[in-house]
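Form 7-S
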Amino acid sequence: MFDLLVRHPLGKCLLLGFCAAVLIFLMGPLLVIVPLSFNSEPYFTFPMAGVSVRWYQAFFESDNWRLALRNSVVVGSSVAFISVVLGTMAAIGLARLNPRLRRPLTAILLAPMILPLVISGLAIYFAYVRAGLTDSLFGLVLAHTMIASPFVVIAVTAALARFDETLMRAAASLGAGSFTAFLRVRLPLILPGILTGAIFAFVASFDDIVIALFVTSAEQRTLPRQMWSGVRENLDPTILAVATMLVALSALVTLSTAWLGARRQRQSFGPFA
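Output:
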Protein backbone atom coordinates (compact mmCIF):
# COMPACT_ATOMS: atom_id res chain seq x y z
CA MET A 1 0.00 0.00 0.00
CA PHE A 2 2.71 2.44 0.99
CA ASP A 3 4.83 1.51 -2.04
CA LEU A 4 1.91 2.20 -4.35
CA LEU A 5 1.36 5.58 -2.69
CA VAL A 6 5.00 6.56 -3.14
CA ARG A 7 5.09 5.50 -6.78
CA HIS A 8 2.05 7.56 -7.73
CA PRO A 9 2.88 11.26 -8.45
CA LEU A 10 -0.07 12.52 -6.41
CA GLY A 11 0.77 10.21 -3.52
CA LYS A 12 4.37 11.37 -3.58
CA CYS A 13 3.23 15.01 -3.41
CA LEU A 14 0.90 14.23 -0.50
CA LEU A 15 3.69 12.44 1.34
CA LEU A 16 6.12 15.32 0.81
CA GLY A 17 3.46 17.79 1.94
CA PHE A 18 2.79 15.79 5.09
CA CYS A 19 6.51 15.59 5.88
CA ALA A 20 6.85 19.34 5.32
CA ALA A 21 3.90 20.03 7.65
CA VAL A 22 5.40 17.85 10.39
CA LEU A 23 8.79 19.55 9.95
CA ILE A 24 7.22 23.02 10.22
CA PHE A 25 5.27 21.94 13.31
CA LEU A 26 8.45 20.70 14.99
CA MET A 27 10.80 23.46 13.86
CA GLY A 28 8.33 26.37 13.97
CA PRO A 29 9.10 27.41 17.57
CA LEU A 30 12.82 27.42 16.77
CA LEU A 31 12.22 29.69 13.80
CA VAL A 32 10.68 32.19 16.24
CA ILE A 33 13.30 31.92 19.00
CA VAL A 34 16.37 32.41 16.83
CA PRO A 35 15.47 35.80 15.29
CA LEU A 36 14.02 37.11 18.57
CA SER A 37 17.37 36.48 20.26
CA PHE A 38 18.78 39.26 18.06
CA ASN A 39 16.04 41.76 18.95
CA SER A 40 17.43 45.09 20.12
CA GLU A 41 14.45 45.65 22.43
CA PRO A 42 13.55 43.59 25.54
CA TYR A 43 10.24 42.45 24.07
CA PHE A 44 9.18 39.08 22.67
CA THR A 45 7.26 40.58 19.76
CA PHE A 46 7.36 40.89 15.98
CA PRO A 47 8.26 42.96 14.05
CA MET A 48 11.58 43.58 15.77
CA ALA A 49 12.64 47.16 16.41
CA GLY A 50 16.21 46.40 15.38
CA VAL A 51 18.96 43.82 15.29
CA SER A 52 21.49 43.52 18.09
CA VAL A 53 23.69 40.99 19.89
CA ARG A 54 23.15 42.68 23.26
CA TRP A 55 21.51 39.59 24.80
CA TYR A 56 24.45 37.39 23.84
CA GLN A 57 26.74 40.01 25.35
CA ALA A 58 24.58 40.09 28.48
CA PHE A 59 24.91 36.31 28.76
CA PHE A 60 28.71 36.34 28.75
CA GLU A 61 28.88 39.36 31.08
CA SER A 62 26.48 37.95 33.69
CA ASP A 63 28.07 36.14 36.63
CA ASN A 64 24.95 34.02 37.15
CA TRP A 65 24.81 32.84 33.54
CA ARG A 66 28.54 32.13 33.39
CA LEU A 67 28.35 30.15 36.63
CA ALA A 68 25.43 28.15 35.26
CA LEU A 69 27.31 27.46 32.02
CA ARG A 70 30.43 26.37 33.90
CA ASN A 71 28.42 24.06 36.16
CA SER A 72 26.65 22.51 33.17
CA VAL A 73 29.91 21.90 31.29
CA VAL A 74 31.69 20.48 34.35
CA VAL A 75 28.78 18.23 35.32
CA GLY A 76 28.10 17.14 31.73
CA SER A 77 31.75 16.28 31.04
CA SER A 78 32.06 14.35 34.30
CA VAL A 79 28.83 12.47 33.63
CA ALA A 80 29.93 11.62 30.08
CA PHE A 81 33.26 10.23 31.30
CA ILE A 82 31.81 8.16 34.16
CA SER A 83 28.91 6.93 32.01
CA VAL A 84 31.29 5.82 29.26
CA VAL A 85 33.38 3.79 31.71
CA LEU A 86 30.41 2.18 33.48
CA GLY A 87 28.24 1.78 30.38
CA THR A 88 31.00 0.24 28.28
CA MET A 89 31.90 -2.27 30.97
CA ALA A 90 28.22 -3.12 31.45
CA ALA A 91 27.67 -3.60 27.70
CA ILE A 92 30.71 -5.87 27.37
CA GLY A 93 29.60 -7.87 30.40
CA LEU A 94 26.05 -8.23 29.06
CA ALA A 95 27.35 -9.40 25.68
CA ARG A 96 29.05 -12.37 27.36
CA LEU A 97 26.01 -13.48 29.35
CA ASN A 98 23.45 -16.12 28.52
CA PRO A 99 20.44 -14.53 26.74
CA ARG A 100 18.09 -15.64 29.54
CA LEU A 101 20.10 -13.64 32.06
CA ARG A 102 21.00 -10.84 29.67
CA ARG A 103 17.43 -9.72 28.98
CA PRO A 104 16.34 -9.00 32.58
CA LEU A 105 19.66 -7.36 33.44
CA THR A 106 19.41 -5.16 30.35
CA ALA A 107 15.90 -4.13 31.37
CA ILE A 108 17.16 -3.20 34.84
CA LEU A 109 20.05 -1.15 33.42
CA LEU A 110 17.74 0.70 31.04
CA ALA A 111 15.06 1.38 33.67
CA PRO A 112 16.36 4.88 34.61
CA MET A 113 15.89 5.95 31.00
CA ILE A 114 12.33 4.61 30.91
CA LEU A 115 11.04 5.85 34.27
CA PRO A 116 9.59 9.39 34.41
CA LEU A 117 12.24 11.84 35.59
CA VAL A 118 9.91 13.17 38.28
CA ILE A 119 9.82 9.75 39.93
CA SER A 120 13.58 9.36 39.62
CA GLY A 121 14.16 12.86 40.94
CA LEU A 122 11.91 12.30 43.95
CA ALA A 123 13.61 8.99 44.80
CA ILE A 124 17.06 10.54 44.42
CA TYR A 125 16.07 13.48 46.60
CA PHE A 126 14.95 11.29 49.52
CA ALA A 127 18.10 9.17 49.20
CA TYR A 128 20.32 12.26 49.04
CA VAL A 129 18.72 13.83 52.12
CA ARG A 130 19.79 10.82 54.15
CA ALA A 131 23.24 10.68 52.55
CA GLY A 132 23.87 14.44 52.74
CA LEU A 133 24.44 14.79 48.98
CA THR A 134 21.89 17.50 48.27
CA ASP A 135 23.09 20.93 47.12
CA SER A 136 26.35 19.58 45.69
CA LEU A 137 27.72 19.18 42.17
CA PHE A 138 29.05 15.75 43.14
CA GLY A 139 25.54 14.60 43.98
CA LEU A 140 24.25 16.03 40.69
CA VAL A 141 26.97 14.16 38.77
CA LEU A 142 25.96 10.88 40.43
CA ALA A 143 22.28 11.48 39.72
CA HIS A 144 22.89 12.39 36.09
CA THR A 145 25.16 9.36 35.65
CA MET A 146 22.24 7.16 36.62
CA ILE A 147 20.04 8.55 33.84
CA ALA A 148 22.83 8.91 31.26
CA SER A 149 24.53 5.50 31.52
CA PRO A 150 21.72 3.66 29.68
CA PHE A 151 22.46 5.68 26.54
CA VAL A 152 26.04 4.40 26.59
CA VAL A 153 24.87 0.84 27.21
CA ILE A 154 22.58 0.99 24.17
CA ALA A 155 25.20 2.55 21.88
CA VAL A 156 28.02 0.19 22.89
CA THR A 157 25.74 -2.86 22.77
CA ALA A 158 24.84 -1.97 19.18
CA ALA A 159 28.54 -1.63 18.34
CA LEU A 160 29.36 -4.97 19.98
CA ALA A 161 26.59 -6.69 18.01
CA ARG A 162 28.58 -5.97 14.83
CA PHE A 163 31.93 -6.94 16.35
CA ASP A 164 33.50 -10.19 15.12
CA GLU A 165 34.70 -12.14 18.15
CA THR A 166 37.03 -14.21 15.99
CA LEU A 167 39.29 -11.15 15.88
CA MET A 168 39.87 -11.47 19.63
CA ARG A 169 40.68 -15.16 19.28
CA ALA A 170 43.05 -14.37 16.44
CA ALA A 171 44.80 -11.76 18.58
CA ALA A 172 45.10 -14.28 21.43
CA SER A 173 46.57 -16.87 19.07
CA LEU A 174 49.24 -14.35 18.10
CA GLY A 175 50.26 -13.91 21.73
CA ALA A 176 48.25 -10.83 22.73
CA GLY A 177 46.94 -10.75 26.28
CA SER A 178 43.32 -9.95 27.12
CA PHE A 179 44.03 -6.30 27.93
CA THR A 180 46.27 -5.81 24.88
CA ALA A 181 43.68 -7.43 22.60
CA PHE A 182 41.01 -5.16 24.03
CA LEU A 183 43.09 -2.01 23.44
CA ARG A 184 44.39 -2.98 20.01
CA VAL A 185 41.43 -4.86 18.54
CA ARG A 186 38.09 -4.40 20.30
CA LEU A 187 38.34 -0.78 21.46
CA PRO A 188 39.15 0.79 18.04
CA LEU A 189 36.25 -1.04 16.39
CA ILE A 190 33.64 -0.14 19.01
CA LEU A 191 34.99 3.39 19.52
CA PRO A 192 32.31 5.05 17.32
CA GLY A 193 29.63 3.47 19.53
CA ILE A 194 31.42 4.65 22.67
CA LEU A 195 31.68 8.20 21.31
CA THR A 196 28.01 8.17 20.34
CA GLY A 197 27.09 7.08 23.86
CA ALA A 198 29.33 9.78 25.34
CA ILE A 199 27.61 12.46 23.25
CA PHE A 200 24.15 11.34 24.32
CA ALA A 201 25.26 11.07 27.96
CA PHE A 202 26.61 14.63 27.87
CA VAL A 203 23.44 15.96 26.27
CA ALA A 204 21.22 14.07 28.74
CA SER A 205 23.07 15.75 31.61
CA PHE A 206 23.38 19.15 29.96
CA ASP A 207 19.65 19.40 29.15
CA ASP A 208 18.27 18.03 32.43
CA ILE A 209 16.25 20.32 34.65
CA VAL A 210 14.01 17.94 36.64
CA ILE A 211 16.81 16.21 38.57
CA ALA A 212 18.61 19.53 39.04
CA LEU A 213 15.51 21.09 40.61
CA PHE A 214 15.40 18.29 43.18
CA VAL A 215 19.05 18.06 44.24
CA THR A 216 20.69 21.48 43.69
CA SER A 217 20.44 24.98 45.11
CA ALA A 218 21.19 28.40 43.62
CA GLU A 219 24.95 27.92 43.97
CA GLN A 220 24.92 24.71 41.92
CA ARG A 221 22.36 25.78 39.35
CA THR A 222 22.92 24.57 35.80
CA LEU A 223 22.04 26.30 32.55
CA PRO A 224 18.54 24.75 32.20
CA ARG A 225 17.76 25.61 35.83
CA GLN A 226 18.96 29.18 35.31
CA MET A 227 16.69 29.42 32.27
CA TRP A 228 13.80 28.05 34.33
CA SER A 229 14.41 30.65 37.02
CA GLY A 230 14.58 33.40 34.41
CA VAL A 231 11.24 32.39 32.90
CA ARG A 232 9.54 32.04 36.29
CA GLU A 233 10.89 35.17 37.96
CA ASN A 234 11.22 37.63 35.07
CA LEU A 235 11.14 37.30 31.30
CA ASP A 236 14.79 37.99 30.57
CA PRO A 237 15.51 38.13 26.80
CA THR A 238 18.89 36.58 27.56
CA ILE A 239 16.98 33.29 27.73
CA LEU A 240 16.37 33.53 23.98
CA ALA A 241 20.09 33.90 23.33
CA VAL A 242 20.81 30.86 25.50
CA ALA A 243 18.07 28.88 23.76
CA THR A 244 19.56 29.74 20.36
CA MET A 245 22.99 28.53 21.48
CA LEU A 246 21.44 25.30 22.76
CA VAL A 247 19.73 24.82 19.39
CA ALA A 248 23.13 25.23 17.72
CA LEU A 249 24.59 22.70 20.15
CA SER A 250 21.80 20.23 19.37
CA ALA A 251 22.44 20.63 15.65
CA LEU A 252 26.15 19.99 16.22
CA VAL A 253 25.35 16.88 18.25
CA THR A 254 23.02 15.60 15.52
CA LEU A 255 25.66 16.11 12.83
CA SER A 256 28.33 14.48 14.99
CA THR A 257 26.12 11.47 15.66
CA ALA A 258 25.34 11.13 11.96
CA TRP A 259 29.05 11.28 11.13
CA LEU A 260 29.86 8.63 13.73
CA GLY A 261 27.08 6.43 12.35
CA ALA A 262 28.43 6.77 8.82
CA ARG A 263 31.93 5.97 10.04
CA ARG A 264 30.68 2.89 11.89
CA GLN A 265 28.90 1.73 8.74
CA ARG A 266 32.06 2.15 6.66
CA GLN A 267 33.99 0.11 9.21
CA SER A 268 31.35 -2.62 9.11
CA PHE A 269 31.45 -2.98 5.32
CA GLY A 270 35.15 -2.17 4.87
CA PRO A 271 36.19 -1.36 1.30
CA PHE A 272 32.74 -2.35 -0.01
CA ALA A 273 30.98 0.55 1.82
